[in-house]
Sequence to fold (243 residues):
Amino acid sequence: MLSDDEVFSLYQAEYFEKDYHCGTSEGSYTQEIAAMQEGFRPYIAKIKQFNSKGRYLEIGCAGGATLELARQEGFETVGVELSQDMAEWGRKNLHLDIRVGTLEQQHFPDNDFEVVYLGDVVEHLLHPKEVLGEIRRILKPNGVVAFAYPMELNHFTPRIRKLLKLQHQSVTKPYHLYYYTTKTLRTLLEQCGFEVTMEQESKLRRQRPILMNIMDSTNSIITKLTGAFGDRGFTIARVLKRN
Fold:
């Protein structure tokens, strides 16, 4: 496992130029803000079913693309980001309140937020239990935490590769430190004093190569019918009643 310094070193300016989508994106972070916001709309709609206003924190917000959409939806937004460059970009271009560093370094007050959101972040956390403990502290009693995350080993292709004893192909740099499913994330949340109130799976569809497209299309249909074997998870949880 990496050290804290090694993890921090991964998320410098170069990461947001090409690696932030694990090398699959054709553009940089700043070129794909509109697409990221469009993809986030279904998530913010689900979050608003639980809390529709109040203070909203995004952990690992990068330049603030989805944080900006949450602000448009009426939340009082704050972001936390490891990258000084991206935090400055978001403050300058989107006029957002983005703090640099880890969540623990911000020293937010107890019971400070109605919503905490982590979009494609939980799999990057070196110490997930410690972060969840801090989230539990800063959430109000009626607050919720929401996660959007990849489930890279859960869909058909990696399962078939495992059956055939083929090596799992992953990114060169160890960006994803832990691999979750809806089930394992639920277990982690329950261990940390949360109760899951909503979870869902979905399947991304790749266009190339053609065999992958056929496999993903079939997988997508089955995921829609069964709610299983997806490669994207979305989970909302609330804090269990404090003693």
Summary: The chain has one domain: 4-239. The radius of gyration is 18 Å. The CA atoms of residues 194 and 240 lie 5 Å apart.
